[in-house]
User: Fold this.
Amino acid sequence: MIRRFVTDDLEGAAEVFRSAFAGDPWKEKWNIELAKKRISELMSAPQSVGYVYTDSGEIIAILCGRKLTYLHGTEYVIDEFCVNPDMQHSGVGSALLAYARNELAGEKVVAMALLTGKGKPSEKFYIKNGFKEIDDMIFMYYFFEKKESINDQT
Assistant:
């Protein structure tokens, strides 16, 4: 079943997030509390809209994003999208994305946007699902003074 994210989904969504980013190619070490904080932050804005894919009551995929105003209309900016590693390549992600796209189109959203790792499997997934790279855009980042990350603390 696919439906909108609700606050009670936080624990299950955080576990999907943690497990999805623990493996290849990301190999990120999210603990459950930090994952819950991230998902909670993403879903706390008034314009936040999320979706979950459940199977027998268990969350197996999440899509977190925001509906934001732009010149050409409202865009849905995907902040996080992940599928339980045991369910990847099963069509779950494509089904969740199609559901969200259909629902958002009905709410007059005109586009979806996201950032993902170049050359990663996620890039191929998004291309397969109709996303295109924009040649005149570049993702830029500024690091403040290097500090120990939360994940490095004991």
Notes: The mean pLDDT is 92. Helices lie at 10-22, 32-42, 92-106, 121-128. The beta strands are 2-4, 48-55, 58-70, 73-83, 109-114.
